[in-house]
Automatic annotation (TrEMBL):
Coiled-coil positions: none
Keyword set, alphabetical order: Glycosyltransferase, Transferase
Reactions the enzyme catalyzes: IMP + diphosphate = hypoxanthine + 5-phospho-alpha-D-ribose 1-diphosphate; GMP + diphosphate = guanine + 5-phospho-alpha-D-ribose 1-diphosphate
Name of the protein in question: Hypoxanthine-guanine phosphoribosyltransferase
Gene3D superfamilies: 3.40.50.2020
Residue stretches making up the Phosphoribosyltransferase domain: 26-171
MF term (GO), any: glycosyltransferase activity
Protein EC: 2.4.2.8
Organism: Massilia jejuensis
Length: 212
């Protein structure tokens, strides 16, 4: 069983294509750090943020970014999942909800990717509902999905094409969060879409054509 998973994980990567190199990844993180440092550098700034990493995808982005921030901050994490081990999003599932310390605070939310935007729209709304004063959304990557999203990131490291990617915290079926660059998974290696449920069409007779 274990062997099968290893073979499958390796096959997914063998057919994948590197679309962002490790150096480009680091430059994108640097850009996010520069924008945040500028935002919180002001000497008269007395509002220091609570930074929240959205686990698990943001783990690598968060770990790379935090040492590049040069202002006082507090850190905590939340855990939300919408994809699970799938390549399509579903319901937002909270695994670790925000703590009460978000009330009245300026919050910086860090996530690896803004794809359809459902996850971060949900996260932002929950934080505002809990009394956060301001929510700044910083994402490592924003995917260009060609349609409007329910949320726009305040800070974006880089923009990705509309394809399924792995690396730098992003996984395919649980694998390859550990890659230092970003790789595009071949479309045919993703699970086929579930067929639409087909309901049998009832055999409705026109009025007056039935028995009786
Ligand atoms: O913009 P959306 O379409 O909502 O997708 C973006 C979310 O999807 C990923 O999380 P995922 O649900 O895969 O959980 P993970 O962080 O554990 O990988 C990613 O980390 C984002 O949080
Ligand atoms: O393209 C993606 N790759 C990995 N995880 C994701 N979560 C949302 N979109 C993606």
């Amino acid at each position: 069983m274990q062997d099968f998973q290893v073979v499958r994980a390796r096959a997914l990567l063998e057919h994948a294509r590197e679309i962002v190199t490790p150096d480009q990844v680091q430059a994108a993180v640097r850009h996010v750090a520069d924008v945040l440092n500028e935002r919180f550098r002001q000497p008269d700034n007395t509002t220091y943020p609570l930074v929240l990493g959205v686990m698990g995808g943001a783990v690598v982005f968060t770990g790379t970014l935090l040492p590049q921030l040069d202002f006082p901050l507090e850190f905590d994490y939340i855990h939300v999942s919408r994809y699970g081990d799938d390549d399509r999003g579903g319901q937002v599932v909270w695994k670790v909800i925000p703590r009460q310390n978000v009330a009245g605070r300026t919050i910086v939310v860090l996530d690896d990717i803004l794809d359809e935007g459902e996850t971060l729209a949900h996260v932002k709304q929950r934080l505002l509902d809990m009394g956060a004063a301001e929510v700044i959304i910083a994402v490592f990557a924003d995917k260009d999905i060609g349609r409007r999203k329910p949320i726009v990131a305040d800070i974006t490291g880089l923009t990705l094409p509309n394809a399924f990617v792995v690396g730098f915290g992003m996984d395919v079926y649980g694998y390859w969060r550990n890659l230092p660059g970003l790789w595009q998974i071949r479309q045919q290696d993703l699970k086929p879409a579930e067929p639409e449920t087909e309901y049998p069409i009832p055999d409705v007779k026109a009025p007056g054509t039935g028995l009786g």
